Amino acid sequence: MNIKIPNHVAIIMDGNGRWATSRGLSRSEGHLAGSKTLQKLTEHIFNKGVKVLSVFAFSTENFKRSKEEVDYLMNLFIKMFKTNFKTLKNKNIKIVFSKKESGLPEKLEKIIKQVEEETKNNTAGIFNICINYGGQDEIVDTTKKLCEKVLSGELDVNNIDNNIFEQNLYQDLPPIDLLIRTSGEERVSNYMLWQMAYSEMYFPSVHFPDFDSNEFDKALEVYTSRDRRFGGINKK
Ligand code: IPE
Ligand code: IPE
Ligand code: MG
Which residues contact 143 (CB under 8 A, 6 or more apart)? Predict the structure, then answer.
């Protein structure tokens, strides 16, 4: 079988908590294990030839969790973004963040800006990290941005189309070809609603810390077997 490589893969990294509790560990230990998995996985995914990788790291809704868990995650992100991306930077990958304009701790916002700045001219691929992100918020924020452009005279309302809309989202990315959500939950939890309009979906039962290179390769096999029609009819 000739494996097809999706251009844009998106992953809802779910199940860190369950992975930990099933081992008698704390939820924090689950998040730490998930962060280690992510580091290895990103390299593998770009090595496979995927051009754009999006991951859901923290949703706007995740602020509903206990202060202890939110604080742990924010500190983990700070540590990760400071140290973990060396190999990606060396591989010429551009790192971008999809997020609401504000709301994260200042220290984290600063590191995010730094990482974006350092990698902005990289051209081998894009790693899009969604943090303090909600899909509906992204669509509303984009609508506001377009309204402002119309009001200022920069944009003619009659010129707004899907392409213009897409270019004004948090990041201008190609459509998602393959969406993976680990942990067996079959829902999208307000993830990249616009970008997943025609994506193939795959819901493996493993929790994210166990989603290793082999598991990703299985996802590629499933993707290869899918018949993507985009509303048309494929000749067999
Ligand atoms: C995903 O794992 C990580 C984040 C949402 C930050 P969860 O923490 O949601 O793990 P479960 O779903 O409770 O197992
Ligand atoms: C989605 O997972 C968000 C992330 C993976 C960051 P959740 O665990 O927050 O989603 P629900 O609550 O099960 O829908
Ligand atoms: Mg969850």
Answer: none
